[in-house]
């Protein structure tokens, strides 16, 4: 039997193996970090952790000072109790699913993931044999089905070109890590200079360092926006800097964009549904493909819906933590 | 129309809306304007329809449809999205071309149906033959017109600015008003609730003389909740054209209660009690209350009542 506990908002702890997963718990022997988004990185900047090299680089750009043991995808991290391997998660650069093989069975922890993968990631892959599948389910309702990336990228490019043709500055509102770089990849074929919020520039350089081409970009110059595209986070939209940009056309890019509240809708010219998480149907399909003995559903407001669909497929699941799983 | 509703620049929206309606020959234009502004006034019970849609999609109404509805905020939107996404529904689709006149015939057919089994068969056909977005508009136009419940009620302004409302459509008479008789098997009366609330904010021109909708914010009491410093907090936004009689009464009651002005919006002393009809209470974590009223409409003003006679947030939940 293996026990899985939750730590903080996103972290998990396996006490039988003394393993933390996106956990900030002090004194844990082995803490694996799935990716560099702030909600999955320990708040303590000095905790020793294990992460992929790109995740380590992104964490350091964001101020992490602790010791990071860098583990490449498909390489093993061995102890006398378990073996751990990172598999590409398809969420952002460096994002990894942690696969732990031990006397308690084979556990796959997804962190945040996407299949089909984000084009701004190393792809998506999973091990063949999984006993316990600990999965996020951010978009856990059948109202969420994503369009192919090609179609979304066409929409992004069309919006930018239409705005420029109308003598306006296209502004894409996204998170600075992951989504911003996806939008940059979409816009790169246009060969138009992109102006980024300061927080995204250092992170984008890490993408380039690991072989991703993002096009021409630089910091924001509100006095020189002609034939430029801007990519900024939501809070920056109301800043004095952005107020200087007179004629803007704003596209809000998020998996939640269709459900964006009135305030967002009234300030945006377009709502582009772009997510770096898998949709509901991909989640169910992946569970059917992997056929784990048990699924632990995490990070969702609707765990019962996922559980209901899995039970229709004959797949055992649970939704609350802590949980003891007896295989 | 959906795309027009997303445009935030009024002149672009006007152009798109105007161009669409002007492109129609006279007869469909009358139909289009009527459907857009007033609806077909046909009885459809949305809750029963939700169950029919759930069966069509092979999903559990309680376990799956209801959580989806809670997120989407409206039943036509939820049905549209599920029919679009769920494979069991998609494979049944066999699109048929319906022009506006044919859509009106469908409404007339629906109006004549009395047996539950006939209505079920009717909607099974609708789900198979119309695309999801067509179904969305079919349901929206069935009752009160496409603008009701749409988030961008400024679209109504576009209709006025392009001169397409107020003329060339068949006026709805008293006899056309929705009654329980029409929707006997699909009870619509249970679809709406009513509460007493406090009027908190209102648009400064009240839509006066323009026929444009007036924007208002209503609130509920939280004087029984320690975490709030205020006695009243917002619970819903209303945007509707106020009829002349109510408008005159509202203006006279609002003016002495103006506390402050923010651009076009007047902040009021929270002392005017109004009666509000709404479909349901939706979760909305971005609001102070954490909830908001769905499809809220002002149906009465009660100057003689006091705010402590209004609903509290706890009672609403």
β-strand number of chain B = 8
User: What integer value in Å does the Rg of chain A equal?
Assistant: 20 Å
Instruction: Sketch the topology of chain A as an H/E string, one letter per element.
Output: EEEEEHEEEEEEHEHEHEEHEHEHEHEE
Work out the strand percent of chain A.
25-35%
CA distance, first residue to last residue of chain B: 34 Å
- Which term fits the overall shape of chain A? globular
Count of individual helical segments of chain B: 13
Query: What assembly state would you assign to the polypeptide chains in this entry?
Result: heterodimer
Give the termini separation of chain A. 6 Å
Strand content of chain B: 15-25%
Shape of chain B: globular
Mean pLDDT of chain A: 93
**Major β-sheet strand ordering of chain A:** 7-8-9-10-11-18-19
Largest sheet of chain B: 6 strands, antiparallel
Q: How many strand segments of chain A?
A: 20
Radius of gyration of chain B, in Å, reads: 21 Å
Q: Give the largest interface.
A: A-B, 21 and 25 residues
Main structural class of chain B = alpha+beta
Helix and strand composition category of chain A: alpha/beta
Give average pLDDT of chain B, whole number: 76
Q: Please trace the helix and strand order of chain B, writing H or E for each element.
A: HHHHHHHHHHHEEEHEEEEEH
């Amino acid at each position: 039997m293996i026990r899985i506990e939750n730590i903080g908002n996103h972290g998990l702890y396996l006490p039988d193996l003394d393993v933390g997963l996106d956990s900030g718990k002090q004194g844990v022997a082995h803490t694996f970090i799935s990716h560099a988004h702030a909600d999955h990185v320990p708040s303590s900047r000095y905790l020793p952790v294990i992460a992929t090299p790109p995740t380590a680089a992104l964490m350091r750009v964001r101020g992490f000072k602790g010791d990071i043991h860098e583990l490449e995808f498909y390489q093993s991290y061995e102890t006398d109790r378990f073996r751990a391997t990172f598999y590409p998660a398809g969420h952002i650069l460096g994002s990894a699913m942690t696969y732990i093989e031990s006397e308690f069975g084979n556990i796959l922890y997804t962190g945040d993931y996407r299949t089909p993968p984000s084009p701004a990631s190393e792809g998506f892959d999973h091990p063949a044999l999984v006993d316990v599948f600990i999965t996020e389910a951010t978009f856990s309702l059948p109202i969420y089905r994503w369009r192919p990336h090609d179609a979304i990228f066409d929409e992004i490019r069309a919006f930018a070109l239409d705005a420029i043709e109308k003598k306006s500055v296209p502004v894409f509102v996204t998170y600075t890590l992951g989504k911003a770089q996806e939008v940059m990849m979409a816009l790169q074929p246009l060969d138009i200079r992109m102006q980024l919020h300061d927080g995204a520039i250092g992170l984008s350089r890490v993408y380039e360092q690991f072989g991703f081409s993002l096009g021409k970009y630089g910091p924001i110059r509100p006095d020189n926006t002609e034939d430029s595209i801007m990519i900024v986070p939501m809070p920056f939209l109301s800043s004095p800097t952005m107020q200087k940009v007179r004629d803007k056309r704003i596209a809000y890019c998020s998996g939640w964009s269709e459900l964006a509240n009135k305030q967002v809708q009234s300030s945006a010219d377009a709502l582009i549904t772009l997510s770096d998480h898998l949709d509901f149907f991909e989640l169910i399909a992946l569970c059917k493909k992997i056929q784990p003995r048990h699924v632990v559903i995490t990070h969702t407001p609707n765990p019962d819906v996922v559980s209901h669909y899995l039970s229709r497929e004959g797949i055992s699941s649970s939704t609350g933590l802590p949980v003891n799983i007896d295989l | 129309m959906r795309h027009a509703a997303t445009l935030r620049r009024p002149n672009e929206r006007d152009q798109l809306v105007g161009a669409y309606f002007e492109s129609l020959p006279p007869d469909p234009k009358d139909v289009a304007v009527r459907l857009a502004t007033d609806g077909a006034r046909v009885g459809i019970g949305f809750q029963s329809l939700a169950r029919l849609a759930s069966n069509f999609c092979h999903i559990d109404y309680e376990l799956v449809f209801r959580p989806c509805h809670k997120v989407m905020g409206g039943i036509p939107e939820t049905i549209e999205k599920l029919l679009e996404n769920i494979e069991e529904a998609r494979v049944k689709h066999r699109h048929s071309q319906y022009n506006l006149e044919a859509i009106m015939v469908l409404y007339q057919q629906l109006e004549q149906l009395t047996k539950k089994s006939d209505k079920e068969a009717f909607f099974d056909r609708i789900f198979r033959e119309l695309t999801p977005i067509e179904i969305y508009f079919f349901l929206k136009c069935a009752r009160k017109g496409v603008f009701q419940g749409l988030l961008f009620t400024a679209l109504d302004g576009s209709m006025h600015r392009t001169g397409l409302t107020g003329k060339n459509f068949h006026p709805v008479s008293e006899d056309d008003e929705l009654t329980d008789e029409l929707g006997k098997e699909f009870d619509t009366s249970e679809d709406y609730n009513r509460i007493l609330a406090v009027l908190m904010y209102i648009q400064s021109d009240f839509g006066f003389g323009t026929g444009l909708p007036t924007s208002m914010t209503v609130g509920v009491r939280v004087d029984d909740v320690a975490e709030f410093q205020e006695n009243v907090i917002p619970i819903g936004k209303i945007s509707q054209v106020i009829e002349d009689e109510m408008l005159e009464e509202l203006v006279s009651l609002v003016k002495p209660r103006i506390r402050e002005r923010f651009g076009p919006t007047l902040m009021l002393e929270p002392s005017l009690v109004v009666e509000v009809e709404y479909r349901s209470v939706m979760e909305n974590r971005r609001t102070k209350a954490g909830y908001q009223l769905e499809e809220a409409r002002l149906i009465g003003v009660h100057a003689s009542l006091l705010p402590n006679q209004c609903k509290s947030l706890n009672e609403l939940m």
